[in-house]
């Protein structure tokens, strides 16, 4: 008679609604291997939203705090993986934010285990999907900036951590740029703009765009001489990198120093080329990035037209912008931005 196949890496799971309480009881056992097996089985269950709901409403979440300080790094890593699976759903994210776990979880960004640190960053990044999550992590921004400074670029596994970290900083900075700016964010991120990884360049430019919304951010971009780097990124092979770089330029050229530096860099022909580029068959994500790139470029050109030298150059290229502003098949938002650009270029005192 054939026996049942039992996975030795998982704890036995009770039937029905008894499963979650039984596994959380196992987490209190002194043997690390029993805790690990229970965590593995809980991770399997958390793919079911009903199990997440049961865990949250049963008050089991707070029991994980003690596991953050477990002597076994595998237990700490698996605990963070469990939270990562739970925060895939809104109820899990809200529950974690309402719990007392966040301060203890945040301490694990300095954990000795790289796998644990990676899982922590996955959880933190998912929390920022909620505005309340980004707000809760604002106090953590200075520490995240220090972590970004210390990451080893050579380690392939660290690329994901840097991307997650930058994405988290982007979400937080869109809510409030001041903590990142106060942590020398513009200078630090400037070094990441030239990273060999397009994922890191993309996310670094996204954070930079969030920081350049406010006046201090715009000034810092100019003071740190980052506009030449950003103009180079307009030629990047990754369209999202291009779009984010154009977004930083769009915000920075609002101030006089930004206008002058961009005019000195002869950015107008580059922006016009991006605006005039014919659309190709692209995936949905690429189409959205292409639209953002064109809109940011048009808005940057509009701001540059406020400078006499910029207006003079753009008057020579007015037919191109007129085509985009009048085409019936043109996207509504792009047509509107093109019309605004034409109106500003044609303005007479």
UniProtKB/TrEMBL annotation:
Pfam families membership: TPR_DNAAF5 (PF25757)
InterPro entries from the UniProt entry: ARM-like, ARM-type_fold, Armadillo, RSP14, TPR_DAAF5
Gene: rsph14
Domain Dynein axonemal assembly factor 5 TPR repeats, chain residue ranges per copy: 92-269
Organism: Sander lucioperca (Pike-perch)
Domain of life assignment: Eukaryota
Record's protein name: Dynein axonemal assembly factor 5 TPR repeats domain-containing protein
Coiled coil regions in record: none
SMART domains according to UniProt: ARM
């Amino acid at each position: 008679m054939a026996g049942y196949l039992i996975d030795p890496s998982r704890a036995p799971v009770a039937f029905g609604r008894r499963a979650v309480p039984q596994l959380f009881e196992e987490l209190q056992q002194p043997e690390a291997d029993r805790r690990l097996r229970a965590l593995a089985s809980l991770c399997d269950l958390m793919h079911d939203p009903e199990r997440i709901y049961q865990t949250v409403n049963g008050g089991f979440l707070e029991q994980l705090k003690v596991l953050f300080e477990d002597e076994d790094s595998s237990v700490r890593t698996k605990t963070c993986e469990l939270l990562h699976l739970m925060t895939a759903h809104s109820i899990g994210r809200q529950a974690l934010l309402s719990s007392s776990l966040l301060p203890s979880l945040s301490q694990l960004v300095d954990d000795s285990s790289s796998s644990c640190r990676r899982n922590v960053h996955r959880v933190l990044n998912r929390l920022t999907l909620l505005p309340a999550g980004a707000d809760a992590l604002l106090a953590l921004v200075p520490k995240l900036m220090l972590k970004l400074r210390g990451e080893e670029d050579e380690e392939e596994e660290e690329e994901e951590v840097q991307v997650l970290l930058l994405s988290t900083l982007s979400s937080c900075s869109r809510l409030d740029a001041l903590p990142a700016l106060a942590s020398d964010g513009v200078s630090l991120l400037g070094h990441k703009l030239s990273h060999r990884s397009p994922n890191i360049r993309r996310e670094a430019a996204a954070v930079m765009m969030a920081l350049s919304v406010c006046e201090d951010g715009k000034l810092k971009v100019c003071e740190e001489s980052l506009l030449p780097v950003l103009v180079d990124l307009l030629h990047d092979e990754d369209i999202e990198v291009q779009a984010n770089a154009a977004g930083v330029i769009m915000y920075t050229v609002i101030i006089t120093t930004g206008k002058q530096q961009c005019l000195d860099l002869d950015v107008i022909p580059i922006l016009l080329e991006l605006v005039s580029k014919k659309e190709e068959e692209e995936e949905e994500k690429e189409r959205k990035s292409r639209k953002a790139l064109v809109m940011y470029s048009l808005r940057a050109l509009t701001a540059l037209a406020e400078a006499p030298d910029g207006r003079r150059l753009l008057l020579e290229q007015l037919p191109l912008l007129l085509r985009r502003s009048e085409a019936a098949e043109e996207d509504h938002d792009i047509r509107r931005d093109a019309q605004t650009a034409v109106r500003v270029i044609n303005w007479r005192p």
